[in-house]
Amino acid sequence: MGSLILHNLKKSRGSFVSFGIVMAITALILNTALVLLFQTSDAYDKLFDELNTAEISAAIPYAMDSDETADDIAALEVVSKTDSNEALFAQAALQEFQGSEFTMNTFFYRLSDERELSLHKISGETGTDSEMNAYIPLYLSELGGYKIGEPIRYIIDGTEYKFTVKGIVSEMQYGNYGTGYIGLYLSDSAYDKIKDDDNFMQVREYLIKTAENADIASVKKSVSKLFKDSNIPTLALMDSVTSKGSRTMVSSAIVLFLAAFAFIVLLVSIFLSRFKVKNTIDEEINEMGVLKGVGYTSPMLMFSQVIPYVIVCGIGLIAGVVFSYGLIPTVAGVLAVQSGFSYTPVFDISAALITVVTILAVVFIFILTAAGKIKKLEPINAIRGIDPLKPAAKNSFPLDTSSGSVGFDLILKHASESVGRNVLLFAVTFVLMTLLAFTGVLLFNVNVRPENFLTTLSEELPDVRVKAESGKTEELLSIPEMENVKAVKYGVFSMEYADGNIPTIVCEDFSRLENNIMYKGSHPKASDEIAIGSAFEEKYGIGDKFTLTQDGKEYDFTVTGFIQSVNNNGLIAEITDEGCTKMTDEPLEIFNLYLADGADISAFVKKLENDHSDLAASVSNAAEETKSMQMMYSSLITIVAAVLFIMTVFIVMLILYVILRSMLTSMKTEFGIYKAMGFTSGQLITRTVGSITPVVFGSALASALLGILYLPAMFGGIFGVLGAVKNNFEMPVFLLIVMAVILTAVNIIIGIILCRPIKKINPYSLIKE
Amino acid sequence: MEKEVIISARHLKKVFGSGESEQVVYSDFDIDIYKGDFTVIMGASGAGKSTLMYSLSGMDKPNAGTVTFCGTEITGMTSDELAVFRRKNCGFVFQQIYLIDKMSLMDNAVAAGSLTNKNKKEITDKANELFDLVNIPYATRKKMPSLISGGEAQRAGIVRAAINSPAVIFGDEPTGALNSNNSDAVLDVFSKLNAGGQSVIMVTHDKKSALRGNRVVYLKDGEIFGDCDLGTYSADDKERTKKLEDFLAKMGW
What we know:
The complex is a heterodimer of chains A (about 775) and B (about 250).
Chain A (H helix, E strand, L loop, with lengths): L1 H10 L1 H38 L5 E6 L5 H8 L4 E19 L2 E11 L10 E3 L9 E5 H7 L6 E6 L2 E12 L11 E5 L1 H8 L5 E10 L5 H14 L6 E4 H8 L1 H35 L1 H9 L4 H42 L9 H23 L7 H5 L22 H10 L3 H30 L1 H8 L6 E5 L4 H5 L8 E12 L2 E8 L10 E4 L7 E5 L11 E6 L2 E11 L9 E4 H8 L5 E5 L6 H11 L4 E5 L1 H45 L1 H10 L3 H42 L10 H22 L9 H5 L1
Parallel strand pairs in A: 3-8, 5-7, 13-18, 15-17
Antiparallel strand pairs in A: 1-9, 1-10, 2-3, 2-6, 2-9, 4-7, 5-8, 6-7, 11-19, 11-20, 12-13, 12-16, 12-19, 14-17, 15-18, 16-17
Helix pairs in contact in A: 1-10, 2-8, 2-10, 2-11, 2-19, 4-10, 8-10, 8-11, 8-14, 8-19, 8-21, 10-11, 13-21, 14-15, 14-19, 14-21, 14-22, 19-20, 19-22, 21-22
Chain B lengths: L4 E12 L6 E12 L3 E6 L5 H9 L6 E6 L2 E2 L5 H11 E5 L10 H9 L6 H14 L4 H4 L8 H13 L5 E5 L7 H16 L3 E5 L3 H4 L4 E6 L2 E7 L8 H14 L2
Parallel strand pairs in B: 3-8, 3-9, 6-7, 7-8
Antiparallel strand pairs in B: 1-2, 1-4, 4-5, 9-10
Helix pairs in contact in B: 3-4, 3-6, 6-7
């Protein structure tokens, strides 16, 4: 049987190579997804432990701190260790963050402060020193583009603070801005220089290590209650679970994305291998009859067909796993930009075993069932070419009676000859078109209509954000530059709720906003109404009471709806301007400005800064800020989508290769007859490619049009993981149809190239054979 | 009256293999085939009969020499030029028949006919005329090749070969796979076509088939060893039969 297996392997070398490549691609993607899935979380936890990071951190105004507070925290149940340090807090507008301004809640720490918990690691320290040295997190370095030795500038309440980047710091407390906070570590001289500046709030940060297996959420709740009971406002209350979730969010989405892609490619490979096995049996039915006649058993013949696939599949999978280690560091590096922590992926035996064994087993079972047909072959009938499972040939599209030209009828006749081939082509094209449609629509919404992507991932996207000088709101809004500018009172404030702090959007009228982030219910209209983020959906319902705390006083709000916020992992709320005033007594003097279409936003911002600085306390180009912030997502998604797009086209090529090679092999005699009759190679190539084109186009078009129905669900599923329950993606029918046409055109071009061997078929070979 | 040469081959050389395994089938070979003749090519196995026939028809390319077919030199043509040339000038009937098994008999004929005529009705009429000639009933014409006898299939093969009214019909042992009755029926069709002026070249091992020809060329060692003029075919012509038997005996048959 060994020689028979070898013979089968040699005979269809080209098809086996294609099959092996498709399997290698499947393994490459799946193994990459699994390694990232297994190791990202482990590496995160390892670094978390290595840096002895606190599970909970809480920042309170320094002035409100006392020895009692520290004792009370230490006395909490399941708290195993506490530490505290001093920091400076400010809403700092980071300049030149990817070329624009990005305002972040920033904690400025003194690097030399002794710490027992939440340590940090420094990398890439330079030899040169300046008075204003700063150590920035990996996130700012990778995404913001700040290099060691270069300056990093902040503007806080109109004052510029310039530091020199001395090193990169790895820490697991904040790390990226998905947590809503970021930390910057300063040299002693730099820290001392800004320490007494009024633009910074001096804070005490408590770091809390919990006992093993403690319920972090309930500890966080206890800490929050402790502060509330002591009338101490919290500036930040973070827990490690939320922090990890936000930092590994994109990584999880990409793992899901890759796993889904690997599954689709595997599905296609199975379709393909089953087709090839069945086709081989059809082609070699006489040979199998002879072999059965001389004493080969059905299992021997079945395994002689199946084992070559298993061998090739195994080699392809192992190669894919090996090659994936060339890709994994790159993907991990891209993910590090978003997560703000990096690690070096290592060989993962469990990922490799799952990839190889699972796929091999699935392929083996599906191919074995396809080869089961061999059992039903009776030797003498098989020698005569009689296939018991094959229906008698039908003369579809009779040339003498059907309408249309003979040439066209011949194409239709050829197209209708093999139901199995057509089913395979339809299924494979449908699946691949789904992938193309998904990646194409994603690329369209990220690159051609970036506003759709941005509004899905962001909250409100004004052109300009302006804060009026106290009491000068009316005056500011009546300057000539404000003509044709829509101004909406809008601000985001950190407010306390039962479990900590929550960014709360305050707006005078939510109906005047341009990005509706409400996905269920309605925006608050009355002063006692609130809409809350998707993270609360399990716990609260519309009509429930939601309590916010201000200066130790509780305010009850009625939940009117749910909103989404990718940046805050669904931990967000929105209340009306009146509702906020009720709590703070301070008027909201921050506005979102929406300029007329085509207006020069930068020029408008400059004008306000230069000519109206007496009215505008701060002005920022919000459109630029948002774009920068979302760039990390869009660049990641563009890379992943583009890679998947290219891979899909490559898989189309491989599949067509296998199908057309099978066709050319099984139709060699037929082509010889046609050539003897006087058909040219060009006619035969056109007819062969033409015979698969209707199925390919029909399937691609059906998939593209049905995409309007299923793509929103796919996007909903994937972006739901990121926290975007509702997405604003457009599904342009025209684009989908164009993509179906492109896929068909690619099929035709590849088909013509792959059918070139028809030219070499010599009618005389009929006689020689 | 002098016969018109329809195919003229000069200095033909055909070699299979190369180096030590090189086998020269024929070399410096000359032959003329005449219009309206039923030329039979005979010879022992391996004498190069089929090789010669396919070289003359442009189905295979000789290594050297020229073939002039209906006044056109075909040896320099590309594969596609030869395909186009064959549409109008050659019809082939193979021992293995080689009907396209996914098409009815009628479709086999129409597919070939469409190469020279775009008028479907004209093609179908011509095909029906030929099916009548070869005695294939209307219902059988719509059947698939797998559902008919070998004799019917071969006669359908002749219809396909003749549908474009080619200058020459080439038969490569067309009765080789048929029983006696079916062979006679097929040979009758060839004779009928030849009687209507159709030039035929047929390779055969069979004396009965050879009797249908008016000229028998015998190949031996890559050369024309004998060339016999049998005269016009008529059934039960004992004198012709004796002449062929004598010729073949002389050839060492």
